[in-house]
Amino acid sequence: MPYDLVIKGGTLVTASGRFAADIAVDGERIAAIVAPGISLDGARVIDATGRHVLPGAVDVHSHHREPGFTHKEDIVTATSACAAGGVTTSFAMPNVQPPPNTAERLDAMIALYGEKAIVDWNINAAGTVPEEIPALAERGIAAFKVFMVVDTGRDYPHMPGIGVHDHGKLLEIFEAVEPTGLPLMVHPHDQALMTHIEEQFWARDERDALAYAKAYSAHDGIIWDTAAALLLRLQKATGTPLHLLHTQTVGVVEQLRRAKAEGQKVTAELNPWALFLGNDWSNIERLGSYALSYYVPEHNTDPLWAALADGTIDLVSTDHAPHTREEKEPGWKDGWKAHTGTPSTQFYVPLFLDAAMTGRISLERVVELIATAPARAFGLAGKGRLEVGADADIAVVDLDGILEITDDIVLSKIGWTPYAGRQVRGVVESTLVRGAVVYENGAVTGTPGWGRQASPTR
Ligand SMILES: [Zn+2]
After folding, report:
1. CA–CA distance, 431 with 409 (Å, rounded to integer)
2. How far apart are CA 11 and CA 1, in angstroms?
3. For residue 399, what pLDDT is reported?
4. Catalytic residue (one of 22, 319, 354, 391)
5. Measured between alpha carbons, how far apart are the two ends of the chain, in Å?
6. Which member of 9, 105, 181, 320 has the greatest number of CB atoms within 10 A?
7. 147 alpha carbon to ligand 1 midpoint, in Å?
8. Is 404 helix (H, G, I), strand (E, B) or coil?
9. What per-residue confidence (pLDDT) applies to 39?
10. How far apart are CA 53 and CA 19, in angstroms?
């Protein structure tokens, strides 16, 4: 009996090393991994000669915009971009309308994903209604999410109902999440400090995208550092596993290092914009709000790469945050009127592969950061690894190929990318989700509804 599919001739890359091997897939799982030359019979054969074979990326932080903001993105377009980018699992953030902060709303969202998702998925429920937390936890989710942000002067992307910055309320949420055993993801932000900083900028009539960038990084990232300190202290008080989002300052890295040395239950994430976009002032001058997520002053870059290499930062996820041009354009005059965030799910794997090719980081560590570590941190036993018995979630990449990033190849509904004009070494050629080819030869071949909820097995 032939296997359903065989990937032949490639070099497998795992978190711990690389080796030449062929992979056989039966049904949804990896059935065999054998040395080249041992003949494997496959009903379908993918020739990976000269290619590298990676576990599909597990992105635990993405904004798919459905329900409520489908003019920006929807589940089909977001997960199409995932397929093209080698992302086989994508977790949605809860700033949608209505936000999944009750069991009823979460159930409706789960039903939507069941019909539409092309890759595997989960939903990070909003942990803003403490009494709903136990019921939300029963629905196969892998984490809760809270934003400490309440936007000033606009109602998106951090609208009412998902933001909490009152310290007592945050403590209450940490306490409510603890019995579920699930991690709490938090976007760190010190709203009280930010309010004062913003008032100073506005008093000087500084409102453009450059002012916005400077305000969020004022006093060398004080709003990030003080928020992280609070969150780490709440973690210590409650024992609730904390997943810290948007790591981008030396100050936060130092706190993480200390907390981990003391055995605190904390994982941390870095987003691609912190190393490939917002850490270069010339990008912000050139692209204005289109380059903002956030400005990460240049002196943070080397320490962030070091923290990725030594494990202080556990994983990379995208913070894929699509907004239309119409929503970004006002930023030239008023950065506070433009929606914050940048799209990235389609190109972050190639950007990190390129970094490995240029010697910034090892290829094995990239695989760990984008696939193995996020799967482990969120309890996804079958994901993020190339092993017999694991889900056949696989990306075949050409590390010699040059990807020319242009707006034309963007699959996200918004049709633009801040990375346009770049050439990177690392082309995703095919993507498999549980054995099904969802992308190959430049086209998405996956079917809406194939994606399944990727739940933790704890
Ligand atoms: Zn985000």
Report:
1. 17
2. 25
3. 98
4. 319
5. 35
6. 320
7. 9
8. strand
9. 86
10. 10
Cα separation, 357 vs 18, in Å, equals 14
**C-beta of residue 190 within 8 angstroms of C-beta of residue 223:** yes
Look at residue 265 and give its three-state secondary structure.
coil
Neighbours of ion ligand 1 (CB under 5 A): 319
Task: Please tell me the distance from the alpha carbon of residue 307 to that of residue 300, in angstroms, as a whole number.
Answer: 10
Q: How far is CA 237 from CA 44, 64, 178, 231, 243, in A?
A: 54, 33, 11, 10, 15
Identify the CA nearest to 151 among candidates 340, 330, 388, 285: 340
Per residue in 183-216, pLDDT tens? 999 999 999 999 999 999 999 999 999 999 999 9
Ligand 1 centre and the CA of 1: distance in Å? 46
Q: How far apart are CA 168 and CA 356, in angstroms?
A: 43
Residue 338's identity, in one-letter code, is A
The DSSP element (H or E) to which 436 belongs, if any, is strand 436-440
Stretch among 146-155, 214-223, 401-410 having the lowest mean pLDDT: 146-155
Q: How far is CA 197 from CA 152, 163, 274, in A?
A: 12, 19, 22
CA distance to 6, 47, 295, 352, per residue, from 19 (Å): 16, 16, 39, 20
CA of 185 to the centre of ligand 1 (A): 10
What would the 3-class secondary structure string for 108-165 be?
A: HHHHHHHHHCCCEEEECEECCCHHHHHHHHCCCCCCEEEECCCCCCCCCCCCCCCECC
Residue 154 pLDDT exceeds 80: no
Instruction: Give the β-pairing of 120-123 and 87-92.
Output: parallel
In angstroms, what is the span from residue 11 Cα to ligand 1's centroid?
33
Residue 319 known to be catalytic: yes
Please, are residues 90 and 119 in contact by the beta-carbon 8 Å criterion? yes
How close is the Cα of 272 to the center of ligand 1, in Å? 12
Give me the sheet containing 120-123, strands edge to edge. 57-62, 87-92, 120-123
What are 5-18's pLDDT values in tens digits? 999 999 999 999 99
Distance 341 CA to ligand 1 centre (A): 7
Measured over the CA atoms of residue 7, residue 8, residue 11 and residue 16, the dihedral's sign is positive
Q: What's the gap in Å between 413 CA and the centre of ligand 1?
A: 17
Per-residue pLDDT tens over the stretch 285-303 = 999 999 999 999 999 999 9
Q: Ligand 1 centre and the CA of 19: distance in Å?
A: 35
Tokens of 281: 């002032």
